[in-house]
């Protein structure tokens, strides 16, 4: 009888969290691309989101195509307290941290780039600092969406970075980001069907570009 080789556990997300800030003034800003990603998943899977006081966020659950039960969350706590909302859901449903996939913006990645990872530090992102603090671990998957840096980054001060992050995309960038969000949906679907590690190969190798960009 051959001995069974123990395979490393496949990470399958059960809770998808998009980071952002509530209030209309933050709507459609670069920093809220995590919210936009969860909205895209909500439309794709036809899982409606509704405000849930207990979870301090907009929450919905349903079935992912080709996968099992999936939960969607947009914390309404403001970015730097996102972890409170995430922890409320994981505690209530007894979900392990590694089943939480957090989607958020990253200035260090150019527009059109996405990065899927199994774990890692917050990298200076306040929403992720809060998530790591409340889940008491860095070992949960995350999908970073590139929002690019301010143009004159060498001379830019902190206030310029903040206004970049809290600014809105240009018309061309908005077109590009809608393609990026379609790709994000594909990546999340793949993570649920085959595990995060398998999905990383596909999601980290592609750069999305506008079809008419020359």
UniProtKB/TrEMBL annotation:
<protein>
    <recommendedName>
        <fullName>Peptidyl-tRNA hydrolase</fullName>
        <ecNumber>3.1.1.29</ecNumber>
    </recommendedName>
</protein>
<feature type="site" description="Stabilizes the basic form of H active site to accept a proton">
    <location>
        <position position="105"/>
    </location>
</feature>
<comment type="similarity">
    <text>Belongs to the PTH family.</text>
</comment>
<dbReference type="GO" id="GO:0004045">
    <property type="term" value="F:peptidyl-tRNA hydrolase activity"/>
</dbReference>
<comment type="function">
    <text>Catalyzes the release of premature peptidyl moieties from peptidyl-tRNA molecules trapped in stalled 50S ribosomal subunits, and thus maintains levels of free tRNAs and 50S ribosomes.</text>
</comment>
<feature type="binding site">
    <location>
        <position position="126"/>
    </location>
    <ligand>
        <name>tRNA</name>
    </ligand>
</feature>
<feature type="active site" description="Proton acceptor">
    <location>
        <position position="31"/>
    </location>
</feature>
<feature type="binding site">
    <location>
        <position position="78"/>
    </location>
    <ligand>
        <name>tRNA</name>
    </ligand>
</feature>
<dbReference type="InterPro" id="IPR018171">
    <property type="entry name" value="Pept_tRNA_hydro_CS"/>
</dbReference>
<dbReference type="GO" id="GO:0000049">
    <property type="term" value="F:tRNA binding"/>
</dbReference>
<dbReference type="InterPro" id="IPR036416">
    <property type="entry name" value="Pept_tRNA_hydro_sf"/>
</dbReference>
<feature type="binding site">
    <location>
        <position position="80"/>
    </location>
    <ligand>
        <name>tRNA</name>
    </ligand>
</feature>
<comment type="subunit">
    <text>Monomer.</text>
</comment>
<feature type="binding site">
    <location>
        <position position="26"/>
    </location>
    <ligand>
        <name>tRNA</name>
    </ligand>
</feature>
<feature type="site" description="Discriminates between blocked and unblocked aminoacyl-tRNA">
    <location>
        <position position="21"/>
    </location>
</feature>
<dbReference type="GO" id="GO:0005737">
    <property type="term" value="C:cytoplasm"/>
</dbReference>
<keyword id="KW-0820">tRNA-binding</keyword>
<dbReference type="InterPro" id="IPR001328">
    <property type="entry name" value="Pept_tRNA_hydro"/>
</dbReference>
<comment type="function">
    <text>Hydrolyzes ribosome-free peptidyl-tRNAs (with 1 or more amino acids incorporated), which drop off the ribosome during protein synthesis, or as a result of ribosome stalling.</text>
</comment>
<dbReference type="GO" id="GO:0006515">
    <property type="term" value="P:protein quality control for misfolded or incompletely synthesized proteins"/>
</dbReference>
<keyword id="KW-0694">RNA-binding</keyword>
<keyword id="KW-0963">Cytoplasm</keyword>
<keyword id="KW-0378">Hydrolase</keyword>
<dbReference type="GO" id="GO:0072344">
    <property type="term" value="P:rescue of stalled ribosome"/>
</dbReference>
<dbReference type="Pfam" id="PF01195">
    <property type="entry name" value="Pept_tRNA_hydro"/>
</dbReference>
